[in-house]
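Notes from hallway chat w/ T.B., transcribed later so I don't forget. T.B. wanted the structure written out for a chain they're using in a teaching module, and asked if we could keep both sequence and structure tokens in one place. Agreed to drop them here.
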Amino acid sequence: MVHQLPVLQGKSGTFRQINFVCRLTCCEKSVAKRGLMYYFKPRPCAAYANAHGRNFGEIPMKRLHSIILLFLVMISANIYAEQTPIKTLHHYTLKNGLELFVAENHIVPLATIEIVVRGGAIAHTRENAGLFHLYEHMMFKGNSKYKTSEAMQQAINRLGVSSYNGMTGAEHINYFFTVPSDRVEEGLEFWSYAIRTPLLNKREFEAEKKVVLSEINGNFADPSYIMGYAIAAATYPDAPWIMQAAGAPDVVENATIAQLKQIKDTYYIPNNSALFVSGDVDPEKVYKMVNKIYGTWKRGKDPWAQKTARFSRKPFEKPRLMVMPHPQISEAFAGVNVLFRGIDTDFDTDSVYGAALLHSITAQPHSVFSRAMVQGGFNIPEENYTGIDYAMRRRTGSWTNYATMLSPDGTLPQKAIDFAAKSVEALYASIPPETPEGDEIIERILRRTRLEELYDHETAASVIDLPHGWWIECQTDICYGFNERFAATTRADMKSFLDEYIKDQPPLIVVIINPEIYKQNKAAFDKAGFEEITAENAYYFNKVKAKAE
């Protein structure tokens, strides 16, 4: 199974090669329907009420009787529907708290079924870091209907599934496959047995621990993993496991079935889960199937009812400097990442809009930000070699100013430090002036957003992605109302975001460089105060083990 890697990617060309190992926040959309990584980038939903001149709050009297009857039917089914502004997207909530999202598109006779649970690295402690990943594996090792992994595989084959997977990420665990549209009910039933009644067989459990240990230990030799763990440890010194779904080998090695049962009872409950069904389906038929199959799933205690303290948005008193010698980086280039703690939606959603608009402005061709960086003396070859990565999450949001620099030498350490300072200045300068030209910049963003949402509604997969990301990382009600508020975002909102999250916040500056070039210039990095990232100092569990010995 796939678990989320601490890697990301850049825009194009060589920069893509460099930045896929240097961004802290992970997840880029995968062609395999979220089978690899999912990078949540706030994308506004369609404001259909405004776009089509409709007021969804007004109900013609001649429809009132039929609506009352429909309401009574829905009560009897222990389910209710929430109006969404997207015609092909339907949102229901069962009485037990399970949410259902259905995106309808009849072009191809296929349907994707995905069940998502809130959890993963966000729920890690030192004692259970890595067990959500192990539990994900055990989901495929038999349940009350399909007693073995072989029986599950045979059932999947009979459903006509060509590929399936599960993933443990920073803030969720998901399981999915695509079936012929006439097998949707059987597919829903398959995941119901898997998620509700896993056997957690002792023999399978011990065997799977070895599989997971082999998987994660093999990955731990990857420089991208090393760097990801180092960044997480630096940014979250009190909880270095909070960004890393793979967890710690010693936790997996010493895991017990009782621990997995605790994860199941605490997190694998309907009111902490959501079903996403997209493709050639009838929404009303789907929610009737879901209510029949999942309606008896017992509601549990909300695992997030008691909010934990917010992680510090200022983990360093001064900029922290780190350098990662990476063998996949060309000698001709180096990557520089300036990371700030970003928006944690468990604690702040008001800042989302200003951050999203500012991010969109900096991403425009020939933006003030990119031009300032290219012209800043940092040896950045062209504008698409610099930009912003913005990841909004419930507890581990981040904002990163990045660049790829040519011909790294002994001046690179100071260039990285100077880039950090000047990139913040360029963010403030990116807020459009209160002039007709500045107004046009903002209006251009809004026009592009309206066009993008039309494109996003072309396929069921792109429609279902909208609530999918928001459900995991924030709240779906923000998704439905995003466009309207995004259109009303002001320059003051952008400045407020910068003042709150970027200004006077010492960043983590990470340089990624070819090992040979690093050796040649190591003295310059040491003099500037850069700490070299190694496997020995990156993995928190190595430090715990050494301390114990």
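Follow-up for T.B.: The two ends are 33 Å apart (CA to CA). Might be a good example for the class.
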